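TL;DR need structure tokens for one chain.
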Amino acid sequence: MPSAEKILELPDITQAAREPAAATVARFEIRYSRFLDPKGNAVRPLPDFAADRAELVALYRAMVLARAFDAKAVALQRTGRLGTFPSALGQEAVGVGIAAAMRKDDVFLPSFREHGAQLWRGDERGSDFAEARQDFPICVPVATHAPHAVGVALAFKLRHEQRVAVCAFGDGATSKGDVAEALNMAGVWSLPLVFVVNNNRWAISLPVAQQTAAETLAQKAIAAGIEGEQVDGNDVIAVREAVARAVVKARSGGGPHLIEALTYRLSDHTTADDARRYRSDTDVSPHWGEDPITRLRNHLVGRGIWAKADEEGLLAEVSGAVDKAVEAYLATPPQGPETIFDFTYKTLPKDLIEQRQAPLGVAQE
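>> reply
TL;DR here they are.
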């Protein structure tokens, strides 16, 4: 009797292999997009969504919330109440722009500096996401989640689901083989996958110029047969527009896309780092003039849709929300080390049950 099980097949890649090789001259260019200059002035016609005050205020609020969360997390770490924390100071437009362009049923695969995107997509406790249920947890190992994103996008394609995987990582990740392999397979299988490079110019202490001889990181997509582009990563309107365009393309079968968001890391790499050892204040200071939050606020004020009372109300709201979350966090009873077993499997395997039940420091025979 025929099985009722549905058979999923990989995309057909054999036809290209049968076709004779032909000489090809490759020509490409990397486009760059920006809508707001550092002072908040529009430098080109804005996309349709930017005509809606509510849309722009939502983007602004999300960046302000991300920065307030960031500052509180650093303060908690400095006072011994939180572990090592990677600040996203000055990079809020990247995470917020990504999340604002996605649908809830898409899947986000973050690195470790996308707090703005995760706050937008919903609260999480121990990676048990309240809304975007299938989003991946924070990935601390550099670039290892890029191949995972390929697997997610391949699953969407095999299941004929109109969903998109969005994978974010830093400039340092583009120097890893994981990213090169992920780009290659995403291109071969024409997957619904969008890669976003948060190019904050520093891979801990290593500047981009010492990571690659390529003029842009976006062009690394070209060798994989993927379209690559750059955006001003301090312009949240530009990030949202580019990611939304790429997501729509991927969802409609147009294949993967890579976006390099040019921003700058204003803080240390993490709270365990001291960036003054490898860069000076004079290197960093000019980049404060590119602040994504100030940029959008100036634009809102210039259009007459944001006033002092709005700003004061928002700051009070955001500060209250962060303080409330911190109170709840500090009131949470300490968890024992055995809980590391509790949130990995739906049903814990027998060998891990035994390990969980074992006294700490006692090896099992």
